[in-house]
Amino acid sequence: MEIIRTIAEMKSRSAAARADGKTIGFVPTMGYLHEGHLSLARRSLACCDFTAVSIFVNPAQFGENEDLGSYPTDIESDRRKLEALGVQAVFLPDRAQMYPAGYKTYVNVEEITGKLCGKSRPAFFRGVTTVVLKLLNIVRPHLAFFGEKDRQQLAVVRKMVDDLNLDVTVVGMPIVREADGLAMSSRNVYLSAEERVSARCLGRALETARSLVQKGETSAEKILREMRAIVSGEPRTHIDYISVCDAETFVDLDEIADKALIALAVQVGKARLIDNCIVEKS
Ligand code: PAF
Questions:
Q1: How far apart are the C-alpha atoms of 13 and 7, rounded to whole Å?
Q2: Helix (H), strand (E) counts: the chain
Q3: DSSP state of 252
Q4: How far apart are the first and last CA of the chain?
Q5: Which neighbouring-strand residues pair with 89?
Q6: pTM of the model
Q7: Is 216 within 8 Å of 236 (Cβ atoms)?
Q8: If you take atom 2 of ligand 1, which residue's CA is the nearest one?
Q9: Does the CB atom of residue 28 touch ligand 1 within 6 A?
Q10: Nearest atom of ligand 1 to the alpha carbon of 57
């Protein structure tokens, strides 16, 4: 497995793979890899000839009081996990290359970035789309893989790719969960043993919502009431948002007509956790 540290080297490695007629798959990450990330890499390996995984903790997507300074990293362990999978290249650019002094260009997808996570993290999506566009320009993949845990991020990236006519296919991959239902996230490492127990409420709230819809409930208010009670019933939790909304526009719904996204963000101790599911009226 090649470890690539410079933009120039990554560009020429991708150009060589393209010249050889290889399909390039790309998995952008911020490292501290878990099964969710590895499922993206496995999918890329299964359908592409050359898979590149980037590890870059992107400062542009963190707000001032967020966890940029303490974001977990373990490059050696990440490298071992990717090598064991058979990934061809790991791209590890540093901040000075990605955002050199005098850097001034940012990409912003409008409207959908103002909903859900965009409300409490106003800088987040602008930072994500900026770094993802830069990475896509450097790696020039045919396919890029993103997890559905960050469903709004996936939609925002898809919109950018579509609006800017980028030649890449964005592939969304299902959420990978721990045995107790907690969605895998690098930030789960922040949870103490007690917080870890409290954090299960996100999965439980979504399960409850799903079963209410299956039983014929269509009122967003009733679903939200049940979900809020589950989350607030747990100590050490603070609800950022719980939403029953349109899965494409993220506009809140009063009634579920056919399909809806149910999404939530909850602060549990130091960890801001997100989760979601799509529900369909039976
Ligand atoms: O989902 C993430 O880990 C990040 O937001 C991404 C897509 C790697 C951009 O920094």
A1: 10
A2: 10, 9
A3: B
A4: 47
A5: 2, 52
A6: 0.97
A7: no
A8: 29
A9: yes
A10: 10
Mark whether 34 is an active-site residue. Answer: no
Per-residue pLDDT of the chain (282 residues; tens, 9 = 90+): 999 999 999 999 999 999 999 999 999 999 999 999 999 999 999 999 999 999 999 999 999 999 999 999 999 999 999 999 999 999 999 999 999 999 999 999 999 999 999 999 999 999 999 999 999 999 999 999 999 999 999 999 999 999 999 999 999 999 999 999 999 999 999 999 999 999 999 999 999 999 999 999 999 999 999 999 999 999 999 999 999 999 999 999 999 999 999 999 999 999 999 999 999 987
Q: At 231, which helix (H) or strand (E)?
A: helix 220-232
Tokens coding 241 = 């948002």
Neighbouring C-beta atoms of residue 122, cutoff 10 Å: 12
Which protein residue's CA is at the shortest distance from atom 8 of ligand 1?
29
The protein residue with its alpha carbon nearest to ligand 1, atom 1, reads: 29
